[in-house]
Amino acid sequence: MKKVKTSYKGRKCKFPHCKHILSIYNHEEYCHVHLNLNMLSSNFILAKAK
Ligand SMILES: [Zn+2]
């Protein structure tokens, strides 16, 4: 039997001012939009978020 790992329901993206609710199947801390951005240039994002 295969267990599906899920995360806590109703988590929000950690990106400042982002109101995306993360899927329980998304184990990352960012929504898909910001996860991609974050992987591309995390330093740039952090600088812009201030
Ligand atoms: Zn986001």
Could you explain how this protein is built, in words?
This protein is mainly alpha-helical and 50 residues long. It has one domain. It has one helix spanning 32-49. The radius of gyration is 13 Å and the shape is elongated. It starts with 31 loop residues before the first helix and ends with a helix. Residues 13, 15, 18, 20, 30-31, 33-34 line the site of zinc ion.
Question: What key phrases describe this protein's structure?
Answer:
50 residues; mainly alpha; 0% strand; elongated; binds zinc ion
In terms of topology, how is this protein built?
Blueprint: H1 32-49
Zinc ion binds next to helix 1.
The largest β sheet comes out as: none
| Oligomeric status | single chain
Unreliable segments of 5+ consecutive residues: none
Name the beta content range: under 5%
Strand elements, count: 0
Report the C-alpha radius of gyration, rounded.
13 Å
For the terminal residues, how far apart are their CA atoms? 46 Å
> What hetero molecules are in the model?
zinc ion
- H/E order of the elements? H
Tally of separate helices: 1
Average pLDDT, rounded to a whole number, is: 79
Shape annotation:
elongated
Brief account:
The chain is an all-alpha fold and 50 residues long.
